[in-house]
Amino acid sequence: PVLFDDLAAHLFKLNYSAEQEYPDLSQHNNHMAKVLTPEMYAQLRDKETPSGFTLDDVIQTGVDNPGHPFIMTVGCVAGDEETYEVFKDLLDPVIEDRHGGYKPTDKHKTDLNAENLQGGDDLDPNYVLSSRVRTGRSIRGFCLPPHCSRGERRGIEQLSIEALDSLEGDLKGKYYALKNMTEEEQQQLIDDHFLFDKPVSPLLLASGMARDWPDARGIWHNDNKTFLVWVNEEDHLRVISMQKGGNMREVFNRFCTGLTKIEDLFKDRGHEFMWNEHLGYVLTCPSNLGTGLRAGVHVKLPHLSKHEKFGEILKRLRLQKRGTGGVDTAAVGGVFDISNADRLGFSEVELVQMVVDGVNLLVNMEKRLESGDGIDDLMPEQK
Amino acid sequence: MPFGNTHNNFKLNYKVEEEYPDLSKHNNHMAKVLTKELYGKLRDKQTSSGYTLDDVIQTGIDNPGHPFIMTVGCVAGDEESYEVFKDLLDPVISDRHGGYKPTDKHKTDLNFENLKGGDDLDPNYVLSSRVRTGRSIKGYTLPPHNSRGERRAIEKLSIEALTSLEGEFKGKYYPLKSMTDAEQEQLINDHFLFDKPVSPLLTCAGMARDWPDGRGIWHNDDKTFLVWVNEEDHLRVISMQKGGNMREVFRRFCVGLQKIEEIFKKHNHGFMWNEHLGYILTCPSNLGTGLRGGVHVKLPKLSTHAKFEEILTRLRLQKRGTGGVDTASVGGVFDISNADRLGSSEVEQVQLVVDGVKLMVEMEKKLEKGEAIDSMIPAQK
Predict the structure, then answer these.
(1) pLDDT tens-digit readout, B47-85
(2) What is the DSSP string of A17-83?
(3) From the candidates A5, A6, A12, A140, which should be mutated to test the interface with B, based on the most B CB atoms within 10 A?
(4) A-chain residue closest to B57, CA distance
(5) Is B195 an 8 Å CB contact of chain A?
(6) What pTM was computed for the model?
(7) d(CA B323, nearest CA chain A) in Å
(8) Which residues of B fall within a CB distance of 8 Å from A86?
(9) Which residues of A are annotated as a binding site?
(10) Where does the record place the Phosphagen kinase N-terminal domain (chain A) (predicted)?
């Protein structure tokens, strides 16, 4: 392969001492800032992955975004699969801190067999308004969104379109490229809550993920509007299965079937998903490693959400709450987005099971509180 | 640098067609010039600090066009960018700077004595006068590309230079990162404080990285001479005061700039300059003098006259709102400044402002009396 003329050029900054280059993290509160000492910076600063991603590239988003008021952000991203190896001295402690003590020697289990889920088809639709499972996938051989070139991004889009266009039956659908969507298509996708916009979050912008927007970005969905794939947003692929009501089992079933089919189609074309037995599925943000899975429901919990033990209950159930606009939004009308908190160290089936069992319990608690009864006997153990 | 594919070693494995940006919806100087062939020719080049074509053009790809202003759509990452990527930047410069040719020479004249008049613009109309420019320090890369170490070194040098100034230039440096609330409030009230850039034109070029590290504001005790460190350029130098004495503003500007330059030269870090492009700055639109000399002036009647735009064009002036570029005028008060930067000297550009504003104020007075101004319409300068 043709390479750029060499290290010397972009290592101009190595003429400065590590102290002179080390970022000022004194006002910062994110995982990267907690881990990156001056010594570690000095040790890693002249390293790069084969595609040319450097330590400064990894950490720029965390340097530019000192901290989120309510959420401990990660503050670093991967530019390619090798980032997690070349910069393991930084990323392993970040991963450990973020993923509940996950060790560099731990193994991650993948289980996309929907039959292994118990129950989940009968969450009470009077409370559970909708069910959704999402994950991300990266295509081996391409750099990740913070670093990929236009040629790579278009290559990913091309491959994705070919794979998705060959899906059939319940999964048969269509691709809508962001750059040449008609006004009507755009409006429909907005009404369906499918359309994704150019990122505005400085967390994403500062890592370079919005470059060349909207080139090679697009949305694919099946005709039934229950299976959706985002191409080249924060990850190469984001895969989403969703429907109204509380049949999480069906949502997960379609999720697993669809994902497995897509993976086969990519393999047929000589491309795998990035995966290894330590980190599971490799994604742009270290917070999404492992399963990359967020399974959740929109559920009405107006009484329970005001109960003083609500936070504690969620914690014990290994769940988290968000507003119905997604991350960083507030709840509206007592309706919350409740999803699994974990990503790495548990399988897909295990995480969805936690959501199913946990939400069932939360709904029972809500019903108790509605009748004016207590819920102390229902308090769960720490899972 | 972190804007992704600076050193994406794989992109040259992709064909030119695959990497060439989609500029079909774009309207900026870069998009007008950068053909696929030119992209193919330049895409494997880099400056000795590692700045590539994709770095130069990223801001123009990410910002297809400004509704009212033809943006430049490309930036320099270091002094050499203008040489290594001349096949792109020369035509951009020519288009932006009124046909300026690759063989043209630029004249620098910071001798304020050469300005004629300018001390008596009518303060009933001219509320304030201001001259700004930028300077880049040789030996460092520019804000889209510089590392934290470089930026801090620029800051340190600048502090040394500025704090050694005396007399009317005696002043103090306020680093953005350790400003007290009181200091911040005062700087806002004085209209001195600059914020982290929010314009995507700047953020997409990487100029806001590591904010607010290495950034700060220096001003003299009199609050008439101000230097911004490490914003869009290494240094932005501003001379300003209330009222219409542009001559005094320009005097202080020239004297201050020259004092600062001497100190930098002593440290073997003069300003980036060459006889073709004049002062080298981050944005190609600021090459030459980098100078914007302007006034805030009340022109409620003239500004609604059918020939207002034409008059400005002929006087080689431009209008902005009083919040600066991309703002609207308020209460008939306009920011009027020179349109040119390259191909004419500092003295010449300020002369255009002085003469032009004088004329426009006289036109305003005529219109106030209900008289016509047709006989006063100037020839094209």
Answers:
(1) 999 999 999 999 999 999 977 779 999 999 999 999 999
(2) -HHHHS---TT--BHHHHH--HHHHHHHTT-B-TT--BHHHHHHHHHH----SSS-B-----SSTTH
(3) A12
(4) A212
(5) no
(6) 0.92
(7) 24
(8) none
(9) 130-134, 193, 238, 294-298, 322-327
(10) 13-100
Residue numbers in chain A where pLDDT is lower than 70: 1-11, 325-328
pLDDT in tens, A139-157: 999 999 999 999 999 999 9
Closest residue on chain B to A27 (Cα): B177
B292 is in an annotated binding site: yes
Would you tell me which residues 147-166 of chain B have a C-beta closer than 8 angstroms to some C-beta of chain A?
147-150, 152-153
Q: Is the pLDDT of residue B328 over 90?
A: no
Contact of B94 with B277, CB cutoff 8 Å: no
Based on DSSP, count helices (H) and strands (E) in chain A, helices before strands. Answer: 13, 10
B36 touches chain A (CB under 8 A): no
Using CB atoms within 10 Å of the CB of residue B191, give its burial: 0 to 12 exposed, 13 to 18 middle, 19+ buried.
exposed
The arithmetic mean of pLDDT across residues B282-304, rounded, is: 96
Tell if the CB–CB gap between B21 and A17 is shorter than 8 Å.
Answer: no
The whole-angstrom distance between B22's CA and the closest CA on chain A is: 7
Least reliable range by pLDDT among A39-43, B179-183, B187-191: B187-191
Q: Show the beta-strand stretches assigned E in A232-313.
A: 237-244, 275-276, 280-281, 294-300
CA A73/CA A83 separation, integer angstroms:
19
Residue B137 DSSP SS3: strand
* Residue of chain A minimizing CA distance to B60: A212
Q: Which tens digits make up the pLDDT trace of A230-260?
A: 999 999 999 999 999 999 999 999 999 999 9
CB A197 within 8 A of CB A189: no
Mutate to test the interface with A, among B34, B147, B196, B204 (most CBs of A within 10 A): B147
Cα–Cα distance for residue pair B160/B378, rounded to 1 Å: 47
CB–CB contact B10 A149 (8 Å): yes
Q: How far apart are CA A205 and CA A61, in angstroms?
A: 8
Q: What is the pLDDT of residue B323?
A: 67
List the end-to-end C-alpha distance of chain A, in Å, as a whole number: 50
- Residue A154 is classified by DSSP as H
In this predicted structure, what is the pLDDT of residue B2?
Answer: 43
**ipTM for the predicted complex:** 0.90
- Name the residue facing B7 among A4, A24, A63 (closest C-beta): A4
Neighbours of A183 (CB within 10 A): 7
A-chain CB neighbours of B21 within 8 Å are 150, 212, 215
Are the CB atoms for A285 and A234 separated by under 8 Å?
Answer: yes
Triad B146, B150, B151: Cα angle to 5°: 80
Check if the beta carbon of residue B211 is closer than 8 Å to that of residue B99: no
Weakest mean pLDDT among B14-23, B38-47, B105-114, B186-195: B186-195
| Sequence-ordered strand ranges (E) for chain B | 126-135, 171-175, 216-220, 225-229, 235-242, 273-274, 278-279, 292-298, 317-320, 333-338
Residue among B13, B49, B177 minimizing CB distance to A2: B13
* Cβ pair A10:B8 closer than 8 A: no
A287-to-A100, A204, A293 alpha-carbon distances in Å: 11, 14, 10
Locate tokens 């010449």: which residue? Answer: B348
